Amino acid sequence: MKLADILTRGAVLAPDKYAAVHGDKKITYRELLLKTTRLACFLENCGLPAGSRVAILFENTLEYIISFFAITRAGYVVVPLDTSLKPDKFNFIINDCEARVLFIQAKFTRYLPEILGTKSPLQLIISDRMLNLNKDRIKSIRLADILDPEDCHPSFEEMTSGLERIVPLDSLNHKTPLQCPHELAAIFYTSGSTGTSKGVMLSHLNLVSNTVATIEYLKLTGDDSVMVILPFYYIYGNSLLLTHLLVGGCLVIDNRFAFPQVILETMVREKVTGFSGVPSNFMILLNNANFCSANLPSLRYLTQAGGAMAPKVIQNLIDVFHDKEIYIMYGQTEAAPRVTWLPPHELKDHIGSIGIPVPGVTVLLTDDNGREVPTGEVGEITVAGDNVMLGYWHQPEEENQVLKNGKLFTGDLARRDEKGFLYVVSRKKEIIKVGGNRVSAKEIEERILENDKVLEAAVVGVSDDVLGEAIKAVVVLKEGQKATAREIQDYIGLRLARHKIPKYIFFTDALPKYPSGKVRKQELSQSL
Hints:
With 528 residues, the chain is α/β, with parallel strands linked by helices.
């Protein structure tokens, strides 16, 4: 089973059902598979070597979905591009992975001169509008001109024939033999918040096995539809794409999260059964009175990943959505992405926990020598399973630091309680060394967020001549609230040791974030 078979299975299960909805645009599984196959035929006839890299620079759209599956169906490697990056970053990634083809949305074509630079490995650019490149070596074509013609038009039966030999059509779980090749399927470039972007190489086995495991614990079926606010280029958003299409569910796309009321209206209109977000998404929604009081009878579950969510925020989420299943999850791009999940019925008794390993994944907590630590002690989260990445593209030194004997060393520190539930303590890189003390940024953030005046907070370490590192907190207050730095410091001082009180506290209207919702902490630590 390969990534392209995910869409094919969904199409067999629900051919005339809507696979995706984006505003007034809708596409059935039958139509999606037809367009994907058409585009894959075109790509196959371009004469590119098998395994060539093909990049996508599109926001969440129906065209993104078509392009993603067509690339994999044609036997190439898909490289999703973070749409928030600067043109020089696009240039770096395309040159780094030696992409031969670029799918680019019209709104980003103004960056093409910088993306291409003086020399580019690109041979073909496919856009949703006609381009005039004036480049002899690089061809361009309009996407609609590929999708609209009737040539390369196999029947639905031809497109779906033989599927039952490689993937069951009745049920799937982590024990199902999926016959997935452990060959490169996609390269997801990390945000590069701690340095140069790294290309995470994920195989068909990585992504398919993790998709099946996620479907299993979320109990997803063809009756489920998910509100998609997370970008597909982000591994969490990509997981929504794969899981729902594999079961014949529906993706409801809305890229306007800056307007929570609009998202709420979409959820009500489309009767979504699921909502997925990162901590900042839930903080914003919980601060919206309309959202908290909304009647969402179709909503079955919520999932949260993409960073630790403060216990107070989790409790607020439970209070507002007490009749919904709330899944707290943990993962990394390098793990394709899901590593652990917390069963909803355990949430109230284990607030702050990231739960237990997902089906088919083994999680150990290890010391600096790679030995497993006893229950209750802090160790590094170490992952083994079919979800562990192939490695980093052209970065063997970085790869050797995190991949050892087939295990992924995540860089996250955690402890396991007597019942087997895991609790993240901090990231290794987010331990602030204040004098002779090791301080967790996460712990301070959680205490600040307990203050009723605070909407968001981020804590980083900054250089200090006396202490080596000092603690800096950047705080966003709720609308209409006022506070001083001394007030916040006093509040923390009543709850934490003196050396954990931030030396610097700054107030801002909003934290800098990636489109995925994660905070750009590197920006916060660069200046005072």
